[in-house]
Amino acid sequence: MPEHEIKKAERCANTNPALNNPNSHERNVPMNMEQTVPNSNFAVLSGNNSTITMSSREIAELCGKRHDNVMTDISKMLSDIGLHAPDFSGTYKTAKGNTYDCFNLPKDLTVTLITGYRADLRYKVVKRLEQLEGQGAPTAIDVRNPGQLALIASQLIEVNQEQAKQIEAMQETVQAHDRLCESEGSLCITDAAKTLGIRRKDMFDWLHDKGWIFKRVESDDWVAYAPRLASGVMEHRVATYTRPDGTEKVVTQARVTPKGLSTLAKLITPTAKLIGGRAQ
Q: Which one of 83, 123, 181, 272 has the largest count of C-beta atoms within 10 Å of its C-beta?
């Protein structure tokens, strides 16, 4: 603290002012112009706007008191309450760049401090606190304000445009599924895996794990479960092969229908958007 401030504080301390009679400090002494700053620099709002503090400088100005006297009142109050004064200490700079000490008090301590002040002084501080609290509240929409209405209309247009793009992308996906459903002919599981862009082994494992296909004990051929056949997502095709020894073998092949391919596109990655790109 600069020497002249220390001397002022010592002179104030010699008067031994009582906290419950702070009006004893009141003097019609003009403020030091070096220490004068705009009111907006006095109060401090926390980062989330949920807690406000008021500086000892603003309290002094609102109450018409000397800042050093208010500092003394605050120090005594904090001591009486049992609080650590440095926890509320701060600094401020004057227009000339000089730095001085001050206190920054939350609302409860500010109200406690001014309890002993005159009613008109308390009223000024309370109204200032209400003003600071209002700064953190959401701003109400004024429907009579053309500027606010224009801003809202612009934001709504942007939201509608974004939604339109999302709907368009969804329509492309739906159209891709519809093309798969409407296409003719089924695919063997290997070809279905290629169409979906996944490995053949992964395709068989997924269909088996999800209850689409299984193997009979007496055969190595994959067949579809009856519910999958009934729902139209799978079908069987019987093929006859000639063995090297000239004998014939009848094989039942499980195949994925266009409807099944569309259903799998929704359940297995990559998504139907990739399928739609390949189908075009």
A: 272
